[in-house]
Amino acid sequence: MDYFNYVDGELHIEGVAARHIAEEHGSPVYVYSAQTFRDHFAVLENAFAGIAPLICFSVKSCSNLSVLKLLVDQGCGLDVVSGGELFRALKAGAPADKIVFAGVGKSRDELVQAIDAGVFLFNAESEAELLRIDAVASAAGKRVKAAIRVNPDVADADTPEKTSTGGRQTKFGVPIERADVLFEAGRYSNVDVVGIHIHLGSPIPAAKTYLAAIDKVEQMVDRLEAGGRQIEFINVGGGFPAQYRTEAKPVCSLTDMGDAICTRLQGLKARGKHFIIEPGRSISANAGILLTTVEYIKQGWERKIAIVDAGMNVLLRPTLYGASHVIWPARFNRFGGHWTALPREDALADAGLEAIDIVGPICETGDYFALGHALPVLGGGDLLAIYSCGAYGMSMASQYNSRGRPAEVMVDGGKARVIRTRENHADLVAHELCGLTGAHHAG
Ligand code: LLP
């Protein structure tokens, strides 16, 4: 579900022409649809209504303050993994009692900050970390709640290797067979260990992967409660899929995913447990696109190559994970005008399309968005839309090759508003100290 539509041969975002956004705010530019964020949050609320979880949006997927504020205004909580993300969450107005703090390597300073802010729950990843949380809480004279992130040794074969986190070979969590001891009564003076957290990877395209892990968690709850411990919270993590429309196999819809997970959790619900989920991409991926402009077309050995003004510094996913995004011109009247929407798979063989590489300007071979992609014949100056970039797009952007990060624009109710300005040359050197002054030191 989204609000990115072609009207008279031109891509519009909630009624605003993509071309106008690029003309006004430059290219490349990330463009988000506010209503898509709201709708996806509502879809998740409905899909998981059977366990009525606290939904904590995974800030790392799309961290702009305006995005966080929009979701907080819908009643959404936030999942943070660093002091920086916690700073963003609080600045966006998230109530501390709706913030969960995850992450494998929380520093002492981050713990001081989080305990001072009064976050709702820590997802602890090791015994050493629990000891540190306990020490910081004791020094602050506060009691805090923690869930243990367990590693259930469950992995989905279709999750990319680099983002699969539930298997025994990964660094994440405490092996589930070794975690019971961390729940022993009186072990920590200022931490109540009252929850179990899993996060299996990102994305997890099939419900069966969650169900296998939930079964192990339920057995763990049985063991702990038989031993007199009380578990209050089960955190199922994130990783619910977005529809990128480039997947080799169909992915589970959010409604089916929610149904299956809620059904499997009914036993724990009947025992009074409360639930948390940490969705990122299922809310943000399809709420954002990247607009990028063709700088040059050249003929390579095998194929034509379109060099665009965005590179791996702007959108890293294709380079890092081999991720595939739909790419299509934002305007295509001059190609014959017979496309009224994104092309269907079976239409790709139509005359008028040619295979072309879409590459960035960065000095690396891996700096491409697609190789041999079927597109209408392109020319310099054409504006392309790279779809489903709302998650892990801007949040993973860098200044590599000393290129500033692009602007971000939010469209809401027919109005486009800049929510992050484009970085300029002065931004590139803003933190560098070399004793230079004057004209050569931009600033
Ligand atoms: N909870 C935890 C503990 C996580 O580590 C993550 C993501 C999430 C929730 C949210 O996962 P989501 O619902 O967004 O799939 N950069 C990669 C994805 C890395 C995900 C890291 N952790 C990508 O571009 O696909």
TrEMBL record:
Keyword tRNA-binding annotated: no
Domain Orn/DAP/Arg decarboxylase 2 N-terminal: 38-285
Xref: InterPro entries: Ala_racemase/Decarboxylase_C, DAP_deCOOHase_LysA, De-COase2_C, De-COase2_CS, De-COase2_N, Orn/DAP/Arg_de-COase, PLP-binding_barrel
EC annotation from Swiss-Prot or TrEMBL: 4.1.1.20
Positions of the catalytic residues: 363
GO biological process: lysine biosynthetic process via diaminopimelate
The entry's keywords: Amino-acid biosynthesis, Decarboxylase, Lyase, Lysine biosynthesis, Pyridoxal phosphate
Cofactor: pyridoxal 5'-phosphate
Record-listed N6-(pyridoxal phosphate)lysine modification sites: 60
Gene3D superfamilies xrefs: Alanine racemase (3.20.20.10), Lyase, Ornithine Decarboxylase, Chain A, domain 1 (2.40.37.10)
Catalysis: reaction(s): meso-2,6-diaminopimelate + H(+) = L-lysine + CO2
GO molecular function: diaminopimelate decarboxylase activity; pyridoxal phosphate binding
Family according to the record: Belongs to the Orn/Lys/Arg decarboxylase class-II family. LysA subfamily.
Protein name according to UniProt: Diaminopimelate decarboxylase
Species annotation: Massilia cavernae
Gene (UniProt): lysA
